[in-house]
């Protein structure tokens, strides 16, 4: 039986499916509504990609700092920082670009998900900062393995996916999303080239979903909950 958590992709989107909210006329009430829906799931943690996590990490490592990558060394162990942790922020960061200043985001313990290509020096840096990490994949992230480790090592049963279009699309392609929680903002974006809910590179096959719940929420927003029918190897 799989140890992986139940994954809910929770996002706010415009009526045309864009997800970059900068420039949108959003009320404080609507921003709070997004957080309220998030909290209603009582999840054990949330996960985002590197770009979304950059503001939380505070600093990016330079190209010279990541130059000492190894050839997918799989012999090293995962690391759980000492202390009691009951909620988590997972960062997908294959090459170890994020130079974390803290191991905490709003009370959630930071866990970074790395490919085994990262250097021993970077792993030592994370341990010094007491940032937990898991190694999943040699050169790129093996998301299925990462999900299994998140469940087995950290005991996460419900995980909120709140990333950009790329990681959302990659998780969708891997069949690792169980539910879509979508808050539609009363905004028409219209900007070409902006990320959408799911951006999958390469050939795709549309994924069937079933509407489970529909609610009108604050500030003329609408909350939609969908269950994914084909949630493994569907693309």
CATH topology of the largest domain: Dihydrofolate Reductase, subunit A
| Separate helix tally | 5
> What class, by secondary structure content?
alpha/beta
Question: Which CATH class of the largest domain applies here?
Answer: Alpha Beta
Low-confidence stretches: 231-235
Beta content: 15-25%
Number of strands: 10
Q: State Rg.
A: 18 Å
Give, in order, the helices and strands. EHEHEEEHEHEHEEE
CATH superfamily of the largest domain: Dihydrofolate Reductase, subunit A
**Judging from the principal axes of the Cα atoms, what is the shape?**
globular
Q: In the CATH classification, which architecture of the largest domain applies?
A: 3-Layer(aba) Sandwich
Number of domains: 2
Description of the molecule:
The structure is a single chain. The chain has five helices and ten strands, in the order βαβαβββαβαβαβββ. The protein is of the alpha/beta class. The chain has two domains: 123 residues, Dihydrofolate Reductase, subunit A, CATH 3.40.430.10; 110 residues, no CATH class. The protein is globular and about 50 Å long. The C terminus is likely disordered.
What is the gist of this entry?
The protein has 5 helices and 10 strands, in the order βαβαβββαβαβαβββ. With about 240 residues, the chain is an alpha/beta fold.
List keywords for this structure.
alpha/beta; disordered C terminus; 5 helices; Dihydrofolate Reductase, subunit A; 235 residues
